[in-house]
Amino acid sequence: MRAFLAFLGLLFALLPAAWGHASLIATTPPTGAVLGRAPQSITLTFSEPVGVTVMRLVGPDGKPLTLGPVADVGHQVRIRLPAAKTHGTYLLSWRIVSADGHPVGGTLAYAVGAASAHAPNSQATDSTARDVAIWLSRWLTYLGLFVCVGAALFRTMRGNDPQRWTRPVFTATWVLLVIDLGLQGLDLLDAPWSAVWQPAIWSAAIASTYAWTIGLMALALLAAAAALGAPSRVRRISGAALALLLSGAAVAASGHVGTAPPQWLSRPLVALHVMLAIAWIGALVPLLRLCVSPATEAGARTPLATFSKWIVPVVVVLAASGLGLALLQLEHLSDLWATNYGRVLSVKLLTIAALLCVAAINRWRYTRPTLAGDRLMQAKLARTTRAEVLLGILILAIVSLWRLTPPPRSLDARPAEAMALAFTLHDSRASARISEQAAGTEWAIALAQPDGQPFAAKQVTLTLENPSAGIEALSNQAQPQSPGHWLAKLPPLPPIGGWNARLTVLIDDFDQLTLGEQPTAGAGGADMDMDGMAHESGSAAGPRGEHAPASPQGISQTPAAKTLAISACWIRLLPAQIPSAAYFVIKNTGSEAVQIDAAASPAFASVMLHRTTEQNGVSRMSASGDLTIPPGGELAFKPGGYHAMLEQPTGPLAVGQTVTLEFLTANAEHASAACKVEPATAIGD
Length: 685
What we know:
The chain is an alpha+beta fold.
C-alpha cells in the first residue's frame, strides 16, 4: 500500500501544472466600441495563462482578413491587425485552450467610423453536434473505464471468475479513447468534421492536458486487463489497485474539478472520489451478474458478503470527498440553481440520493437473507441492483455534461482586487466626482457647487477616451438620479492606463460647461514612491489604469529583439515594503520604431513602467502607457522621469547583486538587461 501511495504522489508531481478554467476579463478595445480610427492591435486579457488555438478576423463585408503576429504572453494575448480600409463592424473570433484542457471561445465586435447596419458573420463553426458527440463519447468512455476497472476489483473477491464478458467492453473503451482524442482536437481548433484526418487536429489534442487523461486511462485499462488475466491472487490485487490509482489520476489530470485551486487539495480529492466511485458503481455490474446467477453456493456468496462489509465506509468517504469538491467549485449556494454547472450538480445530487436509497434497501433488507440462501430475497436483490446499475450509468451521463459547463468560480473572473477608476473634475464654477460602479458598466456622477451644494444641470454627458491605446471616445448621456447626482452607462473598460474623462454639462439652453482631467485612484490616499513623488495607492496588482504585471518566463520565451539595446541599468534598493526603482537607457538601432509594452523580472512579482510628471507644482507618478523608441533613437529612464517600479521582491536582495529585467515589445520580441543593485542613496550617473 505504501508503494502505491508513493506512486500516486509521484504521478501527481509529474502532472502538468494547471490553473483551472480560463475566462476573458478584459479586451482592448472594449467590445462594442466605435472607434474613430482603426486600432493597430487587439489585446485579450484572461484570468490565467492560455494557449491560442484559433484567431479569425472578419471585415464589414463578411470576408476574412489576414491577421498579423499573435503573441500569448502570460495572461494576455496580443493580436496585430491589418490596416482597416473600410468603415463598419469587425468581428474577431477567438479560441484559446485553458490549463484544464478545455477550449474557450468568443467573439469581440468593434466598429471603425460607424457600426454596420448588418453585422458580418463571424464564420464560427456550429458546435452543437460536436458538443453532443463529446458528451456521448466522454460518457461511454467513463462507463467503459468504470466497468473494466470495477471488474478487475471484483475479481480480487472472486478469483475463480475471469470476467471474460468484459473483453468487448475493453475493446470498445480503447476505441472510445481514440475518438475522445480526435474530438478534443476538433474542439480546440473549432474545426469541421472533415478536418479530423488533418495532422494539426491530432497535434493540438496531444499537446493539451487532456492527453494526460487519455494516456492514464489507457494505462488503467492495461492494468485492469492484467489483473483479470493474472493467475495469482497477489498479482490480481496489485493489478486492480494500480488500475484504480491510474483511473483516479487520469480524471485529476485535467478538467474543471482536478485543476481547481488549491490543486494540492483538489487533485487528491478528485482522484479519491473517482476511485471510490469505481469501487462502488464499477463493481455493481459483476455483482449483478452474481445475483442473477442460479448458483447460490457459499463460494458464490463470498463476494457479496465482502462487498457488503466495505461498501458503507466507501460511500461515506465518497460523499465527503464529493462535498469537498462541490465547495471548491461553488462560490455561493445560489450557484446550484443560477448556473448551468450548479444545475448539473443539483441533478446529480438528486440522482445520487435515489441511488443511496436503493443501495440502503439492498444493504439492510435484501443482502443478509440472500447470504442465508433465501432465493426470493436474492431475486429482489437482483432487481434493485439493476436499478442501482441504471442510476450509476445515469450519474456518469450527468457528470459528463460538466465538460461543456464552466464552474461558477470562473464565470466572473473580474479581479476582486482591481480598484474602480475614479475621476475628480473641477473648475471655478463646479466640481465633479465620477466613479466606476461595481458592475463596471455604470458610472456615478456627483456634481457640486464650490460651496458643496448640488449643481443644477439640464443635461450631463460623460466621455471616456484612451488615445495612448488607440481607443476613441466612448460617450453616454447620463440619467438624473437625484439633485446633483447622475448615472451614465458605458461598456466595461479594459485594465490599462491612460484613460481620460470629460464631462459636458448643459446648464441651460444658453450655457454649457466642460470639465476634464486625468483619473485618480478610486480609494485610498497618496503614497510616496521611490522618487519621493506622490502616486495613487491601489491593490497589490496595481490600480486600474496600469498594465497587469507580465510574466518573466512568458517574456523570455519570445524571440530576441535584434535592434534593441538596453544599457546602464541600475536599481535603487529600498526596503521590501517600499517599491524600488530601475533606471536604464533603451536604444533602438533599427530602421523602424519599437514599442515597449511590458516588463518583468524574476526578482520581483510586479514590474510596471511609470513616468513622473509635475502638475501644479506637485510631482505625480502615473502609468507610462505604450513607450515608442524611434528608429536610431533612445529613451532614458532616470530619476524624476521614466522609471520601472519594482514591487514585491521574490527573495532577499543585496547591494552589488545583479538582477535581470525582461522587456516585451509590441512585435512579441524581448530584450534583457542586467541591472546592478545600488543603495537607496545612489543618484545614478
